[in-house]
Amino acid sequence: MKKPLFILISIFLLLLSAFFYFKAHFKPRYDGMTSSSFVKDSVSIRRDNYGVPKIYAKSFDDAYFSLGFVHAQDRLFQIELLSRLSQGKLSELLGPKLIKTDKFFRTLGIRKTILKSMEVHPKNFTGKWINYYNQYLNGINHFVNTSRRPFEYVALGQQPQKFDLVDLLSISGYLSFSFGVGIKKDPLISSLKNSLPKTILDKLFVGYNSKASSSLTAQLPFEIINELNATFELIPPFIGSNSWIVDGNKSTTGKPVLINDPHIGYSNPSVWYEAQIYVGEYKSHGCYLAGFPFALVGHTSNHAWALTMLENDDMDFFYEKINKEKKTVIYKNKEVSLSYRKEIIKVKKQKDIEIEIFESPHGPLINKFLKVESQNDKDISLFWEYYHPNNKMFEAFYDINHAKDMTSFREGVSKLRAPGLNISYVDHSNIAWWSAARIFKRKKGSTGDYILNGSTGEDEIIGYLPFSKNPHSINPKKGYIFTANGQPDNKNPIEGYFMPRDRSDRISQLLNSKKKLSINDHKKMQNDSVLIMANKGVPVILKYLDLKSYPQLQKASDHLKSWDKKFSLDSIGSSVYMEWSYQFLTRILNKTLNENELDVYIKLPNAQHLLDVLYDEQNLDFLNKNLLFSKEVNLALIEAIKLLESKFGTKSSNWLWAKYHTIDYSHVFSKNKLVKPLFHLGPYPINGVKESINSVGAKLGKKRFHVTSGPSVRRIVDMSDINKSYSILPTGNSGNPFSDHYDDQVQKYLDGKYRTISFTKDETKGMLHHFTIQAIGK
Question: Do the beta carbons of residue 525 and residue 726 sit within 8 Å?
């Protein structure tokens, strides 16, 4: 017995020693010094208690170099992943399983788009912003050249790449593509258009224009939709967002307050990297996307800004009439040549792969990637506003970060084409919001809701709204503005893929509940887990329950009666209602949609729109006149109870939302059992539901118990005291698992708490670390 025990203890001690060795070896070096010819003066970098770097520099050139360096310290592997993903180069790093993803992104041609923009509009790539972008690039490469490889590269047996400017600029394509709802919804509508009456389509897709004319309809193979959904699972996509701003009269602080939480697919590391920059009188705190040196959301001592998804339509699909032998396509009733190129995909430990990419005047032919046979000589192309060569996204966000006042801020916002964003703004005396996008204008009676005819020219967009006509609001009398991915309040509705109104209605309800709102009120609002729609739905369910015929429903009925409509961890009613919703929708829809159609549809926001419609039982007639509403309500609840009992036991006291609703922060290495414990975080029980303000949720479907998206950061900026603003990330600021700041925000985030953000002139006050970047020769 002693010998086996000795062996076990020895193995344990060996593993423990190995862990501490790796921790010491791969832990980020937050204290120390490096030298570079790219900085002109010494730069001081401090870290706060959560590893957020504070960069003190004498010039913006030096500050952005330092930002690139610290970003690479904590997130180099993430920067490389997003850069490779955007350009279709993941297989070279991660192996052959990513070949299909690489083919798709090569077909999208994001790198090609950046290079074309540089060629066609060279003046757009001049000025301060490009100088600072290059300095940020130099900072990243300086880290690559002078520092140890992060552990991920050692595990893969790879070296970090040195980046060029286009490697980083291409990440903007990932950002824009991840906003694209149409790439999933348009193919589904096109597929259903031939098989379902217009009355049903109108209900299934709120806002769908069934009266719109189309010169072509055709059935779309579901392989396309399935492949696109698989691609989106690899990317942490932007899902939605909340933002509201109040003026000084609406705030107990007497000054404007900005509140924002962009909703993005959860990942590890989290999407945002927080950092502060100090140059002279300029002070900023921002949330940075990997490879992007200008904060997408942030604040300075003079202003703050937020973003949510506009959800406008900026993608169209076209059926193209192709002559494969001649390599031509019919465009506006004329035969024109297809664009053609070959590209090489490098694959780890395998031979290179050569692919052919064809483009019509609308955009790339996506069939080639998806391996879907063209139908009747019609391939499918993608028209995407991002492809427009005059997209000034980088300059726009530079202007937003460095705006002097509301006028210069608006000028920066006006330069955005794609992706479509709602940009909110506050300073010490103003609040404002603009829809920032090039919004399509179409012929009267036309729509982009399905696959369009690419040959006649009848379905082409005819122009864009001028920016001055985009939805916007400046200092409204009511004292507040909010955006939550719904149709903007505007005289003329815009075309898009808007979310259910649950979050919007709840935000409006709470904003109007008091004359003035405190910072604590805003914190409670951001963490509010009430589902507005349940107030309408639960009474309908209870009304039609037949407890005499189905006495087994009594416990579930009791839980629904006592439920406060909050999706809190100790709630049982939440689990009953959510599972009933899924079973009810499935029962209703499987009589109208086939299995493939149902699987795609039920994951879209439209499914929640439909549920709201169905609470008026008269609307069941448009689906199937033979359906009896009462019967479907009861049978759906029976199925829900069976599921809850099979997963959590027969005692209803075990059907807690904490068990039903859990989150994992998955890393690229989470599927590797050997290193998963080092990188993977979770599972954790978590409050909220997708349609509440605290929009933490899963997609309806087989994986409905697994949370996939939610607030990627929660921010509150109070212009009355800029040194007392608030933020919280889902995991930590570092992507290095050996860093103390890899997961040090997890519990605060789950508990709905915040970190305090302050601007600190004193470099030493409350700081944990000190790193210096020196100029060579000084």
Answer: no
Q: State the DSSP code for 730.
A: S
Q: In the block, which residue shows the tokens 């590797």?
A: 672
Question: For residue 244, what are the β-bridge partners?
Answer: 259, 482
Residue 102 belongs to what H/E stretch?
A: helix 99-108
Amino acid at 349: K
pLDDT at residue 215 in the model: 43
Pairing of strands 257-265, 238-246: antiparallel
605-639 pLDDT per residue, tens: 778 878 888 787 666 666 566 567 888 899 999 99
What is the structure's pLDDT at 389?
A: 78
Domain count, the chain: 1
- Which residues form the domain of 574? 532-565+568-660
Domain presence at residue 602? yes
Q: Which amino acid is at 30?
A: Y
Q: What is the mean pLDDT of residues 405-421?
A: 95
Contacts for 625 with CB less than 8 Å, ≥ 6 apart: none
C-alpha closest to that of 734 among 276, 146, 266, 272: 272
Please give the Cα distance from 700 to 584 (Å, whole number).
Answer: 12
Token pair belonging to 525? 């609002």
Sign of CA dihedral 152, 153, 154, 156: positive
What is the pTM for the complete model shown? 0.93
Residue 396 lies in a domain: no
Distance CA 158, CA 627 (A): 59
Query: Does residue 615 lie in a domain region?
Result: yes
- Is 2 exposed, middle or buried (CB count within 10 Å of its CB: 0-12, 13-18, 19+)? exposed
What DSSP letter does each residue of 75-94 carry, written as one string? HHHHHHHHHHHHHT-HHHHH
Whether residue 636 lies inside any domain: the answer is: yes
- pLDDT cut 70: percent of the chain above it: 86
How confident is the model over 120-143, as a mean pLDDT? Answer: 97
Split at pLDDT 50, 70, 90, the class of 186 is low
Tell me the one-letter amino acid at 503.
R
Which residues are within 8 A (CB) of 524 and not within 5 positions of it... i.e. 6 or more apart?
none
Using one digit for the tens of pLDDT, what is the confidence trace for 151-166?
999 999 999 999 999 9
Contact by Cβ (8 Å): 283, 300 = yes
